[in-house]
Amino acid sequence: MSSSENKTGATPPTIGVFDSGFGGLTVLRALLARLPRARFAFLGDTARLPYGSKSRRTIARYAAQSAQFLVREQGAEFVVIACNTASALALDAIQDAVPVPVLGVIEPGAAAARAASVTGDVLVIATAATVESHAYATACRALGLRVLEKACPLLVPLVEEGWIDHPVTAEVIRIYLAELTAEAAAMGLNPDTLVLGCTHYPLLRSLFERAVPAGMRVIDSAESLAETAVRLFNGRAAPLAAGPAPAEPLLRFFATDSVEKFERLGSRFLDRPVGNVELVDLGG
Amino acid sequence: MSSSENKTGATPPTIGVFDSGFGGLTVLRALLARLPRARFAFLGDTARLPYGSKSRRTIARYAAQSAQFLVREQGAEFVVIACNTASALALDAIQDAVPVPVLGVIEPGAAAARAASVTGDVLVIATAATVESHAYATACRALGLRVLEKACPLLVPLVEEGWIDHPVTAEVIRIYLAELTAEAAAMGLNPDTLVLGCTHYPLLRSLFERAVPAGMRVIDSAESLAETAVRLFNGRAAPLAAGPAPAEPLLRFFATDSVEKFERLGSRFLDRPVGNVELVDLGG
Lengths: 284, 284
Prior knowledge:
Two copies of one chain form a homodimer.
Chain A: E1 14-19, H1 25-34, E2 39-44, H2 56-73, E3 76-81, H3 84-97, E4 102-103, H4 106-116, E5 121-126, H5 128-133, H6 135-142, E6 146-151, H7 155-160, H8 167-186, E7 193-196, H9 205-211, E8 217-220, H10 221-236, E9 250-255, H11 259-270, E10 278-279
Helix pairs in contact in A: 1-10, 2-3, 4-6, 4-10
């Protein structure tokens, strides 16, 4: 299929959305709800996931290649990095690699925490790689927040196993939150906000809301990213308000491996069927 | 360091042990107990794990490169593939890639199940990739066994989180085994043997032994592999019985990424400290 249709004035602009896997489909879901007239190209670099165990240099190379695919091959005029690890470790490298605006997930999450918190103390849970980068801590501190981060490595496998509303998952969340709040108390923090710093975690949002202490706000970084992207996008691209919305959203899905798993699990994240995932080879 | 010392008659022969990560250290632990005079080189291809989400062609290329490193750079005279995915999908390719004997983990596990089972019906649990390959089912059926396989994708993350003797892990095992035995009963099987078809699972052996139905045997594929390797090795290499055993085992560890995590978690698998992991670059 040619990408020339993306370059005519008659079609809406394309937003490229990138993740190392398919967790970023929660961001696409949030974007679709806000920009039903846009055209989206989603790439999951599934052959090379997880990024979390890899070096910064390798992650930057993979993410830059992925962004270039979305811009050069799919005509994306705006790229959303729906991957916490790539945002935390490689946002600059991606911005250098493509000539279009690139938005990562960390800053919008930190800004939403700043807006939500009264005490100024926030908790962030994420994958090990995101926590080790301290990208959320840096972004939160730049906004005057005090922050405690914790890696929760069991949550992604639990989501991928489909144990979304499962007593084992509820118990794992209870244990992680108990450890985190005890550590926060020992540090003299009084947190009132919890940031879900991984694009898999929105599927567990209701479990988190039942598990957090009374009054604690739960911030979904996927929602925060989508809100920020819509603001930036509407400021730069004109035609989304004009013309009729399509009956079906204009979506294309690409993966570098595991198309079958992508189609099977992706619908859970997107909350609608994910069909016709196209296999692409980015090398490496 | 030169590898020439491996080629003199004065030093014991080197056994190369390979895994995509460090789960294979359970195999090295079992080998060390049986061959305390051997010299071992262990390679974890941690930069490219997990192999489970990758295609057979890619796994074969990665595993062949890893085996070649052990033979060419470390002078290994025998290679043990302590990785179920690589054994299941790429044993032939690895054997073609190096001029020394190569032993995988599947056949020894199946042979141990054949020796243990009275009813002839066995259960195999493993990662999703190993189950999807049906390598255990093929090997077991070739020995006249009936077999039911099940993927247990939460167990590796639970081990890596350190929840080795944890109520959540016990509950996850209970759920998986209940699903597996119910399915076996529905198929008319009468299983009396459970094969732990992943090199992470030996760390959960005591939980499994408490969870299985009374009388069911638990087969550790790492132990089975080590026993077979020792038999084959003693048939081919002479000097292991001669000379004094070293005060400290002759071990070198190599990883393609994540040296810190390897050292931190590896000691749990090896049951002794893992220090001085050397970083190697295999390309790709």
